[in-house]
Design brief:
By secondary structure, the chain is mainly beta. It has no helices and 11 strands. Helices cover about 0% and strands about 50% of the residues.
């Protein structure tokens, strides 16, 4: 089992940047595929980005491609989401997710473990 704790959210102006961090407990972090999802008020949770256990495969939602970058440091048990050129429509609670798998996973139903979320607010 793995526990996930997100950090790095906050308030930023449009065009700005934030880096989200997700720290995972456990000694087998490198065996887990990781992902980021987000949920805006009144909307369903949506996929943002995913990374395979070795970090060699990544996927992005079309809405963030070219602006967000997912990465991981297995030595630090941490996955990151670098968010650049932020837009007001990126405002949401961002969640980190994990599951024991080799490939990157794009569906929320494929993840067994979730963090508590971190709020990102982008002002116009």
């Amino acid at each position: 089992q793995v526990q996930l704790v997100e950090s790095g959210g906050g308030l930023v102006q449009a065009g700005g940047s934030l880096r989200l961090n997700c720290a995972a407990s456990g000694r087998t972090f490198s065996s887990y595929a990781m992902g980021w999802f987000r949920q805006a008020p009144g909307k369903e949770r949506e996929f943002v980005a995913a990374i395979s256990w070795g970090g060699d495969n990544t996927y992005y939602a079309d809405s963030v491609k070219g602006r967000f970058t997912i990465s991981r440091d297995n030595a630090r048990n941490t996955v990151y989401l670098q968010m650049n050129s932020l837009k007001p429509e990126d405002t949401a609670v961002y969640y980190c997710a994990a599951n024991r798998a080799t490939r990157a996973l794009r569906e929320s139903r494929e993840y067994n473990y979730w963090g508590q979320g971190t709020q990102v607010t982008v002002s116009s």
